[in-house]
Design a protein that fits this description.
Shape: elongated
CATH architecture of the largest domain: Roll
Organism: Sphingomonas baiyangensis
CATH class of the largest domain: Alpha Beta
Strand content: 15-25%
Oligomer: single chain
Distance between the termini: 41 Å
Radius of gyration: 22 Å
Number of domains: 2
Protein name: Transcription elongation factor GreB
Number of helices: 3
CATH topology of the largest domain: Chitinase A, domain 3
GO molecular function, one term: DNA binding
Keywords: DNA-binding, Elongation factor, Protein biosynthesis, Transcription, Transcription regulation
CATH superfamily of the largest domain: Transcription elongation factor, GreA/GreB, C-terminal domain
Family: Belongs to the GreA/GreB family. GreB subfamily.
Largest sheet: 5 strands, mixed
Structural class: alpha/beta
Strand order of the largest sheet: 5-4-3-7-6
Length: 164
């Protein structure tokens, strides 16, 4: 395990609330129920062939790993409200950006925290290659994104932020 400090985990208020809700649900509801099932299964005798006990212990380890991961992500979180972005003329965290490629095909993406990504909904992580290339760009800027299929050039067509 690395001892280097984690870089800041930029996240929107809604994204942080989702992480916290998952953490609270696992710790406050799912884990205690599972501990009860494991205790009940352990009381049934032979644990080597007890499916409830074996599965329960395995699931408990998974929950504990997830709780540790969520705790680390929340500790490193830096909540940024995109609606309060002072420089709305450039692409920063939380921006919804319309870009056009060399073939004039447009695409709209929103730069969100890495824990909030949803490619199908156009929500790309702050550290994704395209997001890194777009950071600081203004309307009309050309940016090259280095993708596995090769470099692609995009023009920033529009930038929008949520209203405060």
């Amino acid at each position: 395990m690395s001892t280097a400090p984690e870089r800041a985990n930029y996240i929107s208020p809604a994204g942080y609330a989702a992480l916290k809700a998952e953490y609270d649900a696992l710790l406050g509801s799912e884990r205690p129920k599972l501990v009860d099932v494991i205790a009940w299964a352990a009381g049934n005798g032979d644990r080597s062939e007890n499916g409830d006990y074996i599965y329960g212990r395995k699931r408990l380890r998974e929950i504990d790993r997830r709780l540790g991961f969520l705790a680390r992500r929340m500790k490193a979180a830096r909540v940024i409200d995109p609606a309060r972005q002072p420089d709305r003329d450039r692409v920063w965290f939380g921006a919804t950006v319309t870009i056009a490629d060399e073939d004039d095909a447009t695409r709209t993406v929103t730069l969100v925290g890495d824990d909030e990504t949803d490619a199908a909904a156009g929500r790309i992580g702050w550290n994704a290659p395209i997001a890194r290339a777009l950071r600081g760009a203004a309307v009309g800027d050309l940016r090259t994104v280095h993708l596995p299929a090769g470099p692609r050039e995009y023009e920033v067509v529009a930038i929008a932020y949520p209203q405060a």
